[in-house]
Design a protein that fits this description.
The chain is globular. The protein contains eight helices and five strands; from the N terminus they run αβααβααβαβαβα. The termini are far apart. Helix 6 links the parallel strand 3 and strand 4. The protein is of the alpha/beta class and 199 residues long. It has one domain: Cytidine Deaminase, domain 2 (3-Layer(aba) Sandwich). Strands 2-1-3-4-5 form a five-stranded mixed beta sheet. Helix 1 packs parallel to helix 8. It comes from Paraperlucidibaca baekdonensis.
């Protein structure tokens, strides 16, 4: 049964490393005028398909204060896709950050099943994205900020609860709140700026 998972110190550092990558993607979305939601999809272990350039690794490790001791090069080698919200840019209402990385990872692996993968996303997934994650067979979802209006893991709905997910052919573990303050601040700043610009 899928449940919110517990965290040990090493896993917490790893989760924060990947969430910082997702936050960098969210910042890119904001720069394009998109709602700042970013996502990163990672393998359980390093794979040949994983592609992270030295520049991307340097960008991420510059954000992290523990780059010399945390094994970040090994973690970065597990990244299979990163992306951000793009409905406005792509004229596509389904172009959420989660969908973008699922599509990219499926191309990289040449398989729609992303068994053993973990998704890091800066905002709790909506119902559409939870459905896509179920179909993609991801193992785990980690999000930063909760989404009280449309979050489908514990806020507006709880689709991974046993009663709700009984008809799903796959369930995944999930955890919320990783770097939630950073993600929430980015979202708040974006919407405050948008309100000011529409006055």
């Amino acid at each position: 049964m899928a449940q919110p998972i517990s965290n040990c110190q090493d896993l917490q550092r790893e989760d924060e490393f990947f969430m910082r990558m997702a936050l960098a993607q969210a910042a890119e979305a904001a720069a394009l005028g998109e709602v700042p939601v970013g996502a990163v999809l990672v393998f359980a272990t390093a794979k040949a398909e994983a592609q992270v350039s030295e520049a991307e690794l340097a960008e991420t490790t510059a954000i992290s204060e523990a780059s010399q001791i945390s094994g970040e090069a090994e973690w970065a080698a597990r990244v299979m896709a990163r992306g951000h919200n793009g409905p406005i840019t792509h004229h596509d209402p389904t172009a959420h950050a989660e969908i973008a990385v699922i599509r990219e990872a499926a191309k990289v692996t040449r398989n729609y099943r992303l068994d053993g993968a973990t998704l890091y996303v800066t905002l709790e997934p909506c119902t559409m994205c939870v459905g896509a994650l179920v179909h993609a067979r991801v193992q785990r979802v980690v999000f930063a900020a909760s989404e009280p209006k449309a979050g489908a893991l514990h806020s507006a709905r709880a689709l991974m609860d046993a009663e709700q997910s009984g008809y799903f052919n796959h369930r995944f573990d999930w955890q919320g709140g990783v770097l939630k303050d950073e993600a929430s601040a980015m979202l708040s700043a974006f919407f405050q700026q948008r309100r000011r610009s529409h006055r």
